[in-house]
Write a structure and sequence with these properties.
The protein is built from ten helices and 13 strands. The protein has helices spanning 2-11, 25-35, 47-51, 64-73, 106-113, 137-146, 159-163, 165-171, 181-190, 210-219; strands at 39-42, 56-59, 86-91, 101-105, 126-129, 151-154, 176-180, 200-204, 224-229, 239-242, 258-259, 264-268, 282-286.
Length: 294
Amino acid sequence: TAIIGILGILMAGGAYVPLDPEYPQERLSFMLKDTKADIVLSQEKYSDKLAALGSQQVILDKHWSEILDISAQQPELVIAVKSNHLAYVIYTSGSTGTPKGVMVTHSAVNRLVKQTDFIDITAQDTFLQFASLSFDAATFEIWGALLNGGKLVVAPAGKEAISRLGDIITTNDVSIAWLTSGLFQSLVQENLAQLSSLRVLLSGGDVVPLEATRLFLSHCHKTIFINGYGPTENTTFSTCFTVPRDLSEDLNSLPIGRPISNTQAYVLDQMGQPVAIGVPGELHLSGAVSYTHL
């Protein structure tokens, strides 16, 4: 239902703001006021909680027949959506203060999943949509599948998905999945076999542990493993590292790799100047850079 709602919003030329019903009422209220969202698409089981927020609700599973009737009477929408138009707003955790809304354009989503160089996505791939819609990893999962003609498998919410992960992957022939580094470590320790049928596994969100990585590589011989790094502001991944089978024993941590397509990374000093190779500095990230010759 959520995926249908998102597609409807975008096809109508709008932008969506994912709301996690598990969030505190105050946070949800802040997000709606901050974005000035007039309409909330929801499901009946969440309608009571969201009703207190004041925005107009459209309950998809309750109002579906009415939606179909109205849409049948309306002329086909012809919306000119451009690459710089807003696709969605996703909020940071707010751990360092007030949550901040990150505005993501259509071009930013395309940069992540279309003609990129860190992963090969085909129409034959099946993605697992495992992340919460309020977590930017869902951008890679949803649009990695749908914008490349692939299949999207939406995992059930809550702990049920973790306990059934192996069955979900096997039953649906999932070929590409993304897991937080913590969950990756936990699954490697508990049951490696449930990940072995994947064509590509990506992990990130925090430091990916080396010990779990080595154990995974030693058992899942056919799976490509990628360490993805990037802040929410950069749309999921900024740099990626495809982990080699012969991972060096001298490593103290897993590298974050190189910038993906249409991304630039710079290591700069306090004056904003590039540092020499091997000299500590601060990582700065940017989008595509064009050069004009005068």
